[in-house]
Structure formats: structure tokens, C-alpha cells
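C-alpha cells please, single chain.
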Amino acid sequence: MRFSRETAGLPVIHAASGRELGKLREWLLDEKGASVVAFVAEGSGWLPHRRVFSYRDILSMGSDAILVSREGGNPAGDPPQIEGHPTRRVLGMRVISYGGSELGVVEDILFEEETGRVAGWRLSAGLIDDILQGRQVMEPPMDVNIGEDVLIIRDETR
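Here you go.
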């Protein structure tokens, strides 16, 4: 298992050529928030370009780099798509219970490296609450609706 923040900024390297394609910027989830399906890598230079790679393109994920099988990736649209399917960004989104209570903000995603299955989300309720109580990790099963602005989670799945 791995938290997404552990991989932020890692170089993305094409395994066959050894060429660095950019730095990992964010992980993208499927529409239900159940699996990591892609990631965005950002190149360097005057006009850095963002490319979307499928999770299946990953050959290995170490502590210092991510090796991929494909050099190109897809241009990052907004919202990014992978193989014609929409993806969802969740980091930084507010989490609201179905009863209307704010639970916090998604700070991190815990996922299984082998499959991409989301194993939990680390929430922040603010600096003071994080220091006093620690950050909450929500684990499946979760009935989640990923909206444009907020994530809505049914109360009984908390």
C-alpha cells in the first residue's frame, strides 16, 4: 500500500529509452473513486506540458522513480481522460456526509500498488484538528458520489 503524496514529484522514466518524461503531479481515479486509473506527469522547460498515462503503463514504482512502458502518454485535457473514459481528481476536494456534515478535505489517497485499488482516503479537518486528533483515514466500503466541487459520502459507510 502506498499514499499518493509519497509519489508526488517522482521522475517518470521510459524504461526502454531511459528518458525522463517528467515528474508525477497527480493521480486520477475512476468515476466511482474505487481505483486509480491514471496519473499526470508534467515535463520541464519553458512551456511544460502535462501528459496523462494509464495506470497499466506503470512497470514499476520505486521510492525514487516510476518506470513506464509507453513514452508518449496522452495530452492532459480538462478533465483528463484515459482511453476515452473520464477520470476524477479528488485531492483538495471537500468531503461532505449525506447528512450535510463536512468531514474534511481529501489530503491523500491510499492505494494498492499492484492493482490501483483505492484502500482509503486521508482527510484533513484543519491544522489544529490534525495536530490534536490526527488525520482521519476513511476506508472502504464507501458509497461515494464524486461531484464537481465536493465528495458526498453516505453516513452509514463512515
